Amino acid sequence: MGISEVREYDCWLQGRGQNQFSDALKNCLSRIVVKEDCLVVKQAALELQRGLKRMFGVDAAITDTIQKPCTVVGTATAVSELTGKTVSCDRAEGFCIEIGDELSVVAGADCNGTLYGAFRLLMELAKGAGTGFSLEDAPRSGIRMINHWDNLDGTIERGYAGPSLFYKDDKIDYDPQRIEDYARLLASIGINCLSINNVNVRKTAKLLITEQFLPDVAKLADIFRPFGIRLMLSINFGAPYSFGDLDTADPLDPRVGEWWAKRADLVYKYIPDLAGFLVKADSEGEAGPFQYGRDHADGANMLAKALKPHNGTVIWRCFVYNCTQDWRDQTQDRACAAYDHFMPLDGRFDDNVILQIKHGPYDFQVREPVTPLFGALKKTRHLIEFQITQEYTGHQIDVCFLPYMWQDVYHFDTKHGENSTIGGMMGNRISGAVAVGSVGRDENWTGNTLSQANWFGFGRLAWNPDLTAEEIADEWVKLTFGLDPEVDAAVNKILMMSYPTYENYNAPFGVCFMVTRSLHYGPDIEGYEYSRWGTYHRANWEAVGVDRTPSGTNYTGQYAPENAAMFADLATCPENLMLFFHRVPYSYVMKNGKNLLQNIYDTHFKGVEQVEEIIRTWEGIQDKIGSAVYASVRERMGRQLTNAIEWRDVVNTYFHRHTGIPDEQGRKIYD
Amino acid sequence: MGISEVREYDCWLQGRGQNQFSDALKNCLSRIVVKEDCLVVKQAALELQRGLKRMFGVDAAITDTIQKPCTVVGTATAVSELTGKTVSCDRAEGFCIEIGDELSVVAGADCNGTLYGAFRLLMELAKGAGTGFSLEDAPRSGIRMINHWDNLDGTIERGYAGPSLFYKDDKIDYDPQRIEDYARLLASIGINCLSINNVNVRKTAKLLITEQFLPDVAKLADIFRPFGIRLMLSINFGAPYSFGDLDTADPLDPRVGEWWAKRADLVYKYIPDLAGFLVKADSEGEAGPFQYGRDHADGANMLAKALKPHNGTVIWRCFVYNCTQDWRDQTQDRACAAYDHFMPLDGRFDDNVILQIKHGPYDFQVREPVTPLFGALKKTRHLIEFQITQEYTGHQIDVCFLPYMWQDVYHFDTKHGENSTIGGMMGNRISGAVAVGSVGRDENWTGNTLSQANWFGFGRLAWNPDLTAEEIADEWVKLTFGLDPEVDAAVNKILMMSYPTYENYNAPFGVCFMVTRSLHYGPDIEGYEYSRWGTYHRANWEAVGVDRTPSGTNYTGQYAPENAAMFADLATCPENLMLFFHRVPYSYVMKNGKNLLQNIYDTHFKGVEQVEEIIRTWEGIQDKIGSAVYASVRERMGRQLTNAIEWRDVVNTYFHRHTGIPDEQGRKIYD
């Protein structure tokens, strides 16, 4: 293959000239047979047709009559009828694929499954699959969702890739073709639900559930529907009050329930298949049931009853903590908040309420333990929440391949009963995965082209939590950059080393929050030490970290006993979370025989060296990558190096100023 | 006197029922004789008439014929002619006052002097003067100016008293009566020049020098003119370029000079007595001659030539420093910047250029040394700049009587030649004083009523730098609160203790910049330690402060030798500036026998106790102060206490975490 430009816009659905089909296979693929009424199944055939053209230059026709060689697309029942051959796949949203020269088959367990099968066929072909290839697959869990933090003024909270796809100047305002292209990319990785406005529902955004905006929301839903994607709206819990209709938003006031029921009737009149409402309540200044002396079950159930007649769901965020703490009060521990608030409510929630729980107890820090609610909750539906947008992980300036850390989350064993890893609980105890999205109007969707891998990886892991970061990286690289072994090796190397690199030059050993406040990029070591946000490392002349063992805040006690004991013992606590769970003297000797202080110095010097290696690796394949993508990623890598150097020097200086102890290798630390 | 409400709006020009005139004196004052064409002299008579009514309830008539008993108002020549009695006062803008039962006289050396005499008569009467009182006075220097940092959108940069008096929604938009009342207050304390827009001239503000705004600026000038106040406009040095007229703003390009000359012609067509242009160039992102490889003399002189035909002046700010420093580079010292930039240009500036130099080398920190340019500049006209608005001194929430610190500036002896204190150089080597204003649309002008004292005090000190803070406080208290001895004592006590109190709970011993970035209120000890703004205390486990002696950055070398030696020696350096000039170990024993660390603890505990005492003192006179003023000041004092406690705890914790050494009195320091 040559050095054709990587088409950033098409992401992992571009052809890189990988598959040179045999004439026989080409003939088979060129006739697509579909004979079903389902909108999504029809879209599957269309996407197959378009994908074959876009990715491989193959012209295919769509017909409803079978005539071999051909490729039949449809639900398993329909395909069996058409082909006379029994095709079985019965796991929800699953599919099976068979590639043959005479007959290829894409059969879904249902409509969505068929669409996912069509996309998977395209991607497998791009990775080199041919005649004889077959695959059966299904998503582990039923909810695979993206949260948009888009504001109606067109800004995106924590967005690093241009303005909102959906809004501009307080209106719903979009390029319909781009929205369809977005839906395509989402469906290709199995996303089936999308909340389209920021969970902080302020100003005009409150009015999305009124007739001022609903017609436009409905049009947007029309675009996503053929792709098997249902929309959700973030609502403001205080709306009955802030709209001026009632003097309260108290969830136990019957008038409030009635208000929401009527509101739901109106909303569903416009979007009958709306997935429901997403709610951030009593959090960081948002309205909520606490204002009325009610609890979160009261609040969520009230909304659930309003949505119930429409088969709607309330997704209720567990990101509830005291953000007006006094830094002097060390008995308060924000890490405990989600469990403290929601564990006592287990069993109190209606069946169309789903809690949304961040994977870690804080807020998407570089390294956090898994939130102890997972595994502990027994009688409450819930989702695990990730963040694709790189709020604390480099703003899509720094390369940071998140599946590397997400796999650790999925592999974490909660030790609650059988099959108790997060991955193992997906689809049974955990209803699905949701992530804050990362896209905007930038041509390449994600600002940094390499950040597309995080978006892709979230979808792939939500589908199959057993995938490793290596597998995901490799798949993404092949789909995006093609099969050239040198490019393949280089980009895989960059992705796989990026997370540990970022972790090295960032806050050390799970201590969290040494980042600039508000901006959340670059170091501000004491930025949160005296703040109301309540997270501290409390570094002094001899030690750093927070004691969360029974001798401290006893956050460890929220875990199953085996994990509680493991975290509470400095000897068994994973070192990458050491400062999260323990207050550790700088002189503490770590597993590598060096003390904590020296390890802080070492990791920070190493992080910068690793960024330099990432840059060299990227520069090594310059000739094999289109110039635009090469240059835009390279420019970001320059900024990443500056950032890494700043982190290194500020962290090292900070600890050197506290201890007076120099680096044992005599490397430069600024006084 | 009773407990009538203090009329905050009238400030120091309200009557508090102090003067119960004898009938004879009342008769004499009731007939005001004025016979002159000068607008300002006529205003003097008017102000006397209005003031007698407003302040003392005395009805007076204005006439042009002398008939005793009467009070004659006018320039000395005119008064001598009218009364047949030789009145001599010949110092510019000076006056003499004589109070008699038959004939009182207010005679000015010139028009402005007459107006100042009229106001002084009113104030002296309010303080208790009567028949037989006489006074001759004149301002020490000719320029007594206020800078408004008002933006055209109505905001005020560093404003803490409501929106701009002048602007709203990108228009000149004001209450003419309020502007006249403002002019009155300014004239009463001798202010004769006013720049009306922010020195950061951005967006619409650039257009003030165009016909879009000039007619409205002219109307504003009309209001100030009878009060002897000339306006000035802040301009953007890059205007020829940013207006799109030229491809450069290079001061040595003849087209640029021509552009400004034409621009000046236009501006002066509308406001023939405009004082000139105020310029912030090459500072904090503003355009300037450095962009074109020119120096500040090139830039200022080019503008000066444009203004020369109109008798206009360029006031050129010396607040030029590198605000993109690297914190690692300890050879850079922002304190050196003004001297480094401007001392080499001494003698290069045209005679209608005046440099405006902040009193300290940084930026209005709580305690700074006097800028070494003063006394050193020999051949360049210059002003000293203060800040009335309490940017770093409590945001007009905290009581902080600034003349307490300003007197230290005026008393500082530069040791350059004869009569070398700042005060001594006023009116000869230093052309005048300028301050950033503090007023907005709040009813009481300054947010905190007690902050009126700073405004008043700036004017009084600009007039007479020999005044002490005690004298100013006492005068202001009597004029504002009346002559009740208990109120008098209490408010004087509050004012006089407020500055050392604020200094106690703020950054210790002249170390500066431990304040929150951007906001500049409340502590953020390391907020600037790793920033591009270039100011550091570099606290570590053993020491704090910056070595600016010859062994360090040698900033001390910018002072006259005697001062250089004094500052460079820790033993002779004033302790309130110790950490500005020296890096000092915590164990260093100070004059009181305690070490630095313990002194940091002590001052911070004391600062909070002093705020509590201020509150008790204010509460003690509640019954004697109108309820509105009492309550609004008391509410602010509550916030001040919270602020002081935060400063105390954060500063003490910070140093305790670095040293591990507890307070010797065992008081609470949070870990």
Automatic annotation (TrEMBL), chains A, B:
Active site: E284 (proton donor), D363 (proton acceptor), E391 (proton acceptor)
Record Pfam families: Glyco_hydro_67C (PF07477), Glyco_hydro_67M (PF07488), Glyco_hydro_67N (PF03648)
Keywords, sorted A to Z: Carbohydrate metabolism, Glycosidase, Hydrolase, Polysaccharide degradation, Xylan degradation
BP GO terms, sorted: xylan catabolic process
UniProt catalytic activity: Hydrolysis of (1->2)-alpha-D-(4-O-methyl)glucuronosyl links in the main chain of hardwood xylans
Gene3D superfamilies with a match to the protein in the record: Alpha-glucuronidase, C-terminal domain (3.90.1330.10), Chitobiase/beta-hexosaminidase domain 2-like (3.30.379.10), Glycosidases (3.20.20.80)
EC nos: 3.2.1.131
Domain Glycosyl hydrolase family 67 catalytic, first and last residues per copy: 134-445
One GO location term (cellular component): extracellular region
UniProt-listed SUPFAM superfamilies: (Trans)glycosidases (SSF51445), beta-N-acetylhexosaminidase-like domain (SSF55545)
Segments forming domain Glycosyl hydrolase family 67 C-terminal: 446-667
Record GO terms (molecular function): alpha-glucuronidase activity; xylan alpha-1,2-glucuronosidase activity
Occurrences of domain Alpha glucuronidase N-terminal (ranges): 23-121
Transmembrane parts of this sequence: none
Origin: domain of life: Bacteria
Similarity-based family: Belongs to the glycosyl hydrolase 67 family.
Subunit annotation: Homodimer.
Entry protein name: Xylan alpha-1,2-glucuronidase
Species, as recorded: Candidatus Gallacutalibacter pullicola
Lineage of the organism: Bacteria, Bacillati, Bacillota, Clostridia, Eubacteriales
